[in-house]
Amino acid sequence: MDKLKAMYHLCCIAEVGSFSAAAKLAGVPVSTVSRSIQSLESELGAALLKRSTRHVALTEIGKIYLNECKDILAAIDRVEGRVGSYQNAPSGVLRISALPHYGEFRLLPLLEEFQQRYPKIVIDLELSSYAADLQRDGIDIAIRGGREPDGRVIAQRLEDNTHRLCASQSYINKFGMPHNLSELVRHRAILYRSPAQVLHWHVESQGGWRRIDIDTAQISNSLRVIRQGLLTDQGVAMLPSWSIEDDIADGRLCWIPIQETLSVIADQPVGSVYMLYQQPQYTIPKIKVAVDFFKNAFSGR
């Protein structure tokens, strides 16, 4: 027995006063309404209706049960209405975990447009280098750098994260442009400190990697501090293009072309920046529109 349909049929009978009229209202055969009510009464162990040849009326317990049925069916209508609205206008809290610097430089400029487009979505943005587990930590979308993750999550590549040498144009004018490693080591390095370690530079040599012996001018875990060190001619740094693209375009900073292959982590190319999400979660409207929005925003980069 479909109890919800039986409740609905009882409401129809109470409204129109007969099985035949109730069947017409519900759009089903009279026999369907009759069997539905009989099954309901049998399961409840109580008579809900008083039947006569001319009229059908509710029993005392039938009136009480009818009121509860109306409340239940109305609650279901409200919930289904909310689901429909939710599908049409994505809403809810969207939890995003992003690398601190990438979140500041790349995501924050986009979030204003996103929230104007989807005002019912509340952004809960966590800027952290901690590699969150999406399912365990309740994260909807994670932004991470490195090599492509395993197949447990969908990894949408956003852009290149390879680090390259750079300096200010005024620094190059003062101290010269290094073209190879032997010239580079005469300069001073501004190094980035990750949560785990200082990222000293390495050069690919004879099938392996070795650390570059270069004087250090400054160490920081802030790309803004490193950028300021570059602009004040403190030394040279290795940064991804996304972090200083405006300075490169304006000519304040420039890339240093060097013959050798360098890396900030030996034996581990930095690779790309990825947007991570769980495939089953993509059906949730707030996650779907966010994934599609960020994918489109980065597609031209």
Automatic annotation (TrEMBL):
GO molecular function: DNA binding; DNA-binding transcription factor activity
Keywords linked to the UniProt accession: DNA-binding, Transcription, Transcription regulation
SUPFAM superfamilies noted in UniProt: Periplasmic binding protein-like II, Winged helix' DNA-binding domain
Ranges for domain HTH lysR-type: 1-59
One Pfam family linked to the record: LysR_substrate
Superkingdom in the source lineage: Bacteria
UniProt KW DNA-binding keyword: yes
Entry-linked CDD domains: PBP2_CrgA_like (cd08422)
InterPro entries: LysR-type_TF_proteobact-type (IPR058163), LysR_HTH_N (IPR000847), LysR_subst-bd (IPR005119), WH-like_DNA-bd_sf (IPR036388), WH_DNA-bd_sf (IPR036390)
Membership in a protein family: Belongs to the LysR transcriptional regulatory family.
Protein name (record): HTH-type transcriptional regulator DmlR
Source species taxonomy: Bacteria, Pseudomonadati, Pseudomonadota, Gammaproteobacteria, Cellvibrionales
